[in-house]
Each structure stands twice: as structure tokens, then as C-alpha cells.
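User: Here's a protein and a ligand (iron/sulfur cluster). What would the complex look like?
Assistant: Let me lay out the input and then the predicted complex.
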Amino acid sequence: MPKVWIETFGCQMNEWDSQAMLGTLVSLGWEPSSSPDEADLLILNTCSVRRKPEEKALSELGYLLKLKEIKPHILIGVAGCMAQRMGGELLKRFPALDFVIGTGQVQNIASVIDEARYRKVVATEIDGCVSTLPTFRSKPFKAYLPIIFGCNNFCSYCIVPFVRGRERSRPLKEILDEAKKLVEEGVIEITLLGQNVNAYGKDLNEGYTFSDLLYALGELPIKRIKFTTSHPKDFSPQLIEAIASIPQVCHWIHLPIQSGDDKILKLMNRGYTIAQYKQLVERIRERIPDVSLTTDVMVGFPGEGEEEFSNTLKTFEEIQFDQAYMFAYSPRPGTAAERLPGQVEQAEKLRRLKELVSLQNEISRRKNLAQLDRTLEVLVEDEDPKGKGYLVGKSRENKTVIFPGKKELIGKLVWVKPKEAFLWGFKGEIVDEEGKG
Ligand code: SF4
């Protein structure tokens, strides 16, 4: 059997693209390989959201292409957002590369590979939705389910609308059928994916919204439903109600704030003010008191001075997120922010990042400490690589939980009493397996 190896950079949507390419190839007789040295087909599924992952992928590509000198029969391709952004330029820069497959061509991976045996291929058209595809998942009990592709928001720093196209929602029935199939296969947790899940259905003009989709999924025997990512400007009161009232929907909301300053939010074209964001958080916490709130933020956006940065620190103090993904702004080619005046020196961006990370780490630790009196439902995902005899899983609030247990529990739901709180989550003990203690 020929072997295929895929390395994935970036977000969950990229992870799903990799699972779908792998699933399609496995259904055609390919075998997944854990090492590029043993594979006949090597794919780098890349991310363009910041400069660093692009640089990492390019240097990795240089190394992989050397393998062709000793094994000329192997095929090497680049997929994902960088493939979409750079297209044929990648072939010019790396003449030994065999194919470039963009974000809208995942469903055509088999034909791209067939063609790449005879000639160089650049497949970067973005057309319509990818419908149901076989997926190959390393954890059979967890699945991603894309519900909407692309984004219409054009945040001024973001490359996504350029590399993933405009919003295309999948039909409700197709999503429900796929969810039913996943449940039949034994999937316990489904994570609904989209660059902006809250915009689900708008482009279909059939009158149903993301909360309608959640209610429909809630009728199925799914144990857990998670979703990401939510845009604050599209977070409706109906959606808060759906999360609060559908038992399977987990109480974890990822709500990117991006900056804590109104001037910067305007320059980012985010479509909300800090007052509106805080009001939304208040409404969510009022209706879902045990919600875990996580966010994305960047420092050093063009025009961010000391005052704007201290507003971000102040906003973080006030909101008290459970966790945050924090980055230094990285200009992306072709975006509006790349041309904005007031670009911030890299050293200054890193100084601000350090300050924000230190503040948020303290908040995360404190918030977790305050939850030691709870008992958490945990989906056991794996053995803990750092502790023999320990397992690691995720709670409904998407917190990492580590506890002693037998590996037979992997893929099951258990109840864990946290004993120690950390920045990243909890260490605890099982109080009951498969049910409330
Ligand atoms: S909402 Fe903004 S940041 Fe998110 S994918 Fe769309 S353009 Fe990018």
C-alpha cells in the first residue's frame, strides 16, 4: 500500500482539511504514515495567519524536497492557506515541488495527485462548499464538523477572506446527516467549525440561523457539542438562550476580542466597541454563570501606543477571561492593515506581549483556583505523556484535566474532582465513571 504523510499547521479548519484529505486517500487504498521518511506522498497543510507559521512551513518544505534527491518517485505537495495565497509562486520558488492545492480544492485531492504524477499542478479555485467527505481522525471519539466556509468580515489584519473566500454555509440537512453518521460511528464530541459560526445560514436565505442549527443538533443523541469561532458582533440573544438551554451544548465560548481599545478595534474593522463587547459578556454570564470564556488578542497593531495598550490591559483585568491566545501583530501581505501608518517596532510588540501574557496567566490561574469545588465531566483523550499512569482529557468548559486512570478509559466520559489548579487546567481524581458521582 502506498503511504501518505500530512503535517498540519494552524487552526482547526486546517486540521479538518487534513483529516478530509487523509480520509479520502485512505478510502482509495493509501495508508497513513507517521514519518515523512517512509511516505510516498507528503503534504504540508499550511497556515498564513501570521508570518511565523509560513516561515516554518517553507523551511520544512526545503528539507522535505531534499528527500526527492534520494527517492525521486515520491510526490510532495503544499496545501492550505499559504498554498492558496502563493499558488504558482511556490512552484517557481521550489521547482521540485509537485503540486499546490488550495483551501477550496480539498475534495479534489485524489485527482490532483493523479495529475501530479505527469505534470505540475496548481489547484486554487475556491468554488462552493465542500460537502461530506470521509475523514481520518486520530481520535475516533472526537470529530470536527464544518458548517460554514470562508468569511465576509474583512478585519483589516486578516488574510482569511482572501484565502478561504466568502461565507458559504452548508445546508442544514447535510450537517444533520453528517452528525447522525458521526454519532453512529461512536463520536462523543462534535465541534462545529467555521471562521464565524454565528453567520451560519445568512447566505442561504432559508430563514434559519446558527441557533436553529444548534436546536436541531440537540435533538440527536450527541453527548457533547462545541463550536468555534464566534464573532462578537453576530452573537445574538437567541444564541445565548440556545447555549443555555440545549443540554449537549458545552459551556465554552471562544469570543475573540482582538484589542481592548476602541480606536484600535475601529482600525481593525471589527464592528463592535469595548462597551458592546462587555455588555455581551455580561449577558452571557448572566444566563450561563458557569461559562468558560476564552479569547484571541493581538498587541502592537498599527496605531497602538501606550494608551491603547493600557486600555487592553484594563479590559483584560475587567473581563477576566478563562484563557487567551495572545500574539504580536504580524503584517500579512495584501491586507489593509499592512499599509496602515504607525507600525510598531518588533521589540516593543514583544514587550507588550510579555506584559499581557503575565497578566492573563495570573487571571487564568486565579479563575481555575476558584473552581476547585466543582466536579467536571471529562472526555478522556489520551495517556498523559508527562505522567505514567495518568490520563488527560477535556472538560465541557474545554479545560485540560489530568488524573490517574487506566488507558481503557480513553474515549469515555468520566467525572473528575479537581484537587489542584494550574494555569492550563487541573489535576484531579475520578469520582465516578460514565455518570455523575
Ligand atoms: S472574522 Fe475577521 S479575523 Fe475572523 S476570519 Fe473573518 S476576517 Fe479573519
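Summary: The chain has a mean pLDDT of 95.
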